[in-house]
Amino acid sequence: DGGITQSPKYLFRKEGQNVTLSCEQNLNHDAMYWYRQDPGQGLRLIYYSQIVNDFQKGDIAEGYSVSREKKESFPLTVTSAQKNPTAFYLCASRLADNTGELFFGEGSRLTVL
Amino acid sequence: RKEVEQDPGPFNVPEGATVAFNCTYSNSASQSFFWYRQDCRKEPKLLMSVYSSGNEDGRFTAQLNRASQYISLLIRDSKLSDSATYLCVATTSGSARQLTFGSGTQLTVLP
To answer: What pLDDT is attached to residue A106?
Structure first.
């Protein structure tokens, strides 16, 4: 079955540590996205990528980095520069025509201790 | 002003009630619209797309009013399992960037 897989589902990190969240999709989608969701809030765009080896900053890119070396993979690194990293992180993808629905992974819940 | 605005609720309704949510968008170039459902601590899942002529899927009806720039979701005969947060999304064709989520409307259906 096609879908998006995020890992880990839960992650605890000490302050000052970088952490990388994995996102893999087998839907053959060109566009991939990372969102952050805080309690009671909507989704805020961190980074997005439309093709391999290219990505763009979203609204809240500071303290985050991404790579897109393969079509299927779009990992997100939460760096120590991110001041409030505790949040629910969602990866999504959709077709390159940019009009279709987004498909989401199950999310990764990061807690900084 | 937010690009996509929703009443956050919470909406607490009895089982069997009809409930309606509205969502307004500010970008007149928005072309595609969706309603997503998000259960507590889960990922959003597509509930339905919103077509210009309006569309229905069982107990759910979505409508688009381009003149007033809002979309609506109507849930009839609400079930306990409808309790969730409902997110509206507006997208602009041709741009990966222009995909905007509302903050969500929380619905609780009470027995």
So the answer is: 96
